[in-house]
Amino acid sequence: MNNILSIYKPNEIAKYIRLSLSDDNINESESIINQRKIINEFIEKNGNEYTKTKEFIDDGISGTNFNRPGWINLLNNIENNNIKVVITKNLSRLGRSNYECSYYLDYYFKEKNIRYIAIQEGIDTKIEENSNNDYAALNNFINEKYSKDLSKNIRKVYKIKQKSGEYMGSIPLYGYIKDKNDKHKLIVDPYAANIVKKIFNLYLKYNSQNKIKEILYKEKVLIPEVYKKTKRGLKVKDIYNWNIRTIKNILTNEMYIGNMVQNVHSKKSFREKKLIKNNKEDWIIINNTHEAIIDKNTFNKVNRLLDINYKSSKKDTYLLSGLLYCKDCLSKLGINKLNKGKYTYLYTICNNYKKNNLCKSHSNNYIVLEKTILDNILNKISNYIDKLDYLNIYNSIEKKDNIKILEELNINLKEIDIKLEKIYLDRLDDIISLNTYKELKKELLYKKEYINNNIKDLSKDKEIDINKIKDDYKIYFNNNIRNFIVKIIDKIYIDNLHNVSIYYKVNIF
Ligand SMILES: [Zn+2]
Predict the structure, then answer these.
(1) 312 CA → ligand 1 middle, Å
(2) CA of 223 to the centre of ligand 1 (A)
(3) How far apart (Å, rounded) are the C-alpha atoms in residues 387 and 163?
(4) Distance of CA 503 from the midpoint of ligand 1 (Å)
(5) Do residues 283 and 264 lie in contact, with contact meaning Cβ atoms separated by under 8 Å?
(6) Cα of 337 to ligand 1 centre, how many Å?
(7) For site-directed labelling of 122, which of 249, 283, 353, 468 has its Cα 20 to 30 A away?
(8) Coil, strand or helix: which one is 202?
């Protein structure tokens, strides 16, 4: 693809160079000089005169602040129709977050008819078939790993607070209320506690969450949100209509046997509001912190039953579930299980054949099929996976997030100082006893030290082992292969002669 730039006037081409705060001096390859050099070479190689092109620079001085003067200047130029091409060294120069990049890439540039080129990823938005545009989809996948790593770090901050056994939630669980004298303590709310007991007993009796829902409805038991008035502003369609999920959450919540269960959810990343459920091993459970509503025996019995019922209702999901289609009649291909003595045999079958006796069976050994298809995909992307600039991704994200975490911890420190001052004043005014004062002070100082140690830890410059980062990625990739496949594959068609055609959502292949 030579001379792709020769069709433009030099002043229609914009180079955008960005040095972000997180780059510091650690990454020579991202220096302004280096970015400029790479872009200039690219322009020259592709048939234009780089000396006459426009250059926009943000040198990172503005830091985390939202102003990017160079970028804003570039946008103004685009708005005035002065620019037709924007070139950056790589995609991460374009925006500071994945979200920002996607916005410019998927919407803004399209709308303004701007040809955008990221040299290192080979992204060029002008060439329709240019497969590399869709590397963005792969980059998304890669970035998800960061979000996950990141949420670990957020948990770190929270754990520091939670480990001291404080109840951190703002609204206590149904069945409990906050102690008026100590908002970090939970006490039993007799009415709601009775409903909770009823729910457990009903499950033991009927073994069905739907039945519980039915009974609660008949008996006009207010749903928790309404009972606790947490949805005051919102319209609730039916105030007695219990959600099955709510019932399930109650039946499985260890809080009811007196244990403090926290860190169940976390934000996917600082950029998102949505909560995701953490793995159970990451939950922080402290036993016997408050009065139980349900005895352990009942709780265990119910949860064993739930487990059994769940397992028997769950359908198997295979790597290619939902992606297989019959090429001849376009129906879905199901994955069926056949038990033959000791062995289980998995095979595909056209749904149209199975249900209507039309079409043909399209029976394939699923295990063989899966391996063939997986090999095919991995072959095609292995190059991409190997070529990724791991160090750069790692640096740009990890560093930035460390800054956020440090900010958060520092706010925490300030809060503790304020509390220290407050208890000191309370002591002076004789609002609290000397003993209470000493205890509170001890606790606060302990927390302060804990946080300070964490700050020290995070501030250290870590040695970076590129091979370890790469391995981390490969492990992540292997552990999330289904997730990845669903992301990149649209449909897999199989014809009667066992020929496979894979249709990708992205054009990279
Ligand atoms: Zn068919």
Answers:
(1) 29
(2) 47
(3) 42
(4) 17
(5) yes
(6) 19
(7) 468
(8) helix
Domain ranges of the chain: 10-127, 134-164+316-509, 170-258+293-313
Q: How confident is the model at residue 65 (pLDDT cuts 50, 70, 90)?
A: very low
Q: Do domains 10-127 and 170-258+293-313 have the same CATH topology?
A: no
Question: Which residue bears the tokens 């004298």?
Answer: 181
pLDDT of residue 97: 64
How many whole angstroms from 334 Cα to the centroid of ligand 1?
Answer: 11
Query: Please, are residues 209 and 233 in contact by the beta-carbon 8 Å criterion?
Result: no
Ligand 1 centre to CA of 322 (Å) is 15
- Ligand 1 centre and the CA of 499: distance in Å? 13
Q: Are 331 and 350 in contact (CB under 8 A)?
A: yes
372 CA → ligand 1 middle, Å: 21
Confidence (pTM): 0.42
- Output the CA 427–ligand 1 centroid distance in Å: 80
d(CA 12, CA 87): 11
> Distance from the CA of 509 to the center of ligand 1, in angstroms?
26
CA of 272 to the centre of ligand 1 (A): 42
Instruction: Output the CA 494–ligand 1 centroid distance in Å.
Output: 9
Which of the 8 DSSP states describes residue 207? Answer: -
Q: What is the CATH number of domain 170-258+293-313?
A: 3.90.1750.20
Dihedrals phi, psi of 375, to nearest 5 degrees: -60, -45
Architecture in CATH for domain 10-127: 3-Layer(aba) Sandwich (3.40)
Higher pLDDT: 96 or 241? It is 241
- Give, as residue ranges, everything with CB less than 5 Å from ion ligand 1: 326, 328-329, 331, 350, 352, 359
148-168 burial by CB neighbour count: b if 16+ within 10 A, else e? Answer: ebbbebbbebebbbbeeebbe
The answer, yes or no, to whether residue 111 has pLDDT greater than 80, is no
